[in-house]
């Protein structure tokens, strides 16, 4: 496949991912989870998949995030500082946004199939 065609297909896939809808927050849940959903859609879904099923980044839904990060503090540290291919978001997101997106992954994505 020519590189330009591959690049075009990859760009379309990223746009499709960005335009898809992240799993909703249950009605009546803590509003911080809505904030986490917004952060997820804008900063995480392009690598981890809209529903957290994995893509360039690892799968986080279906309980995978809870297995990898049983301690919320460890996941907050990873999102803040990054590791391997995962960039750190300390300079791009506030502490409140990082905590909100981690809660969203732990409380919403973790139960998404």
The structure class reads mainly alpha
Number of helices: 5
How many domains would you count in the coordinates? Answer: 1
Q: Looking at the chains present, what oligomeric state does this protein adopt?
A: single chain
The major pleated sheet works out as: none
Q: Within the CATH hierarchy, at the fold level, what is the topology?
A: Cytochrome Bc1 Complex, Chain D, domain 2
Percentage beta strand: under 5%
Helix content: 55-70%
User: Total number of β-strand segments?
Assistant: 0
- Coarse morphology: globular
Give your account of this protein's structure.
With 113 residues, the chain is mainly alpha-helical. It has one domain: Cytochrome Bc1 Complex, Chain D, domain 2 (Orthogonal Bundle), CATH 1.10.760. 56% of the residues lie in helices and 0% in strands. The chain contains 5 helices and no strands. Helix 2 crosses helix 5 and helix 4 crosses helix 5. It is globular and about 35 Å long.
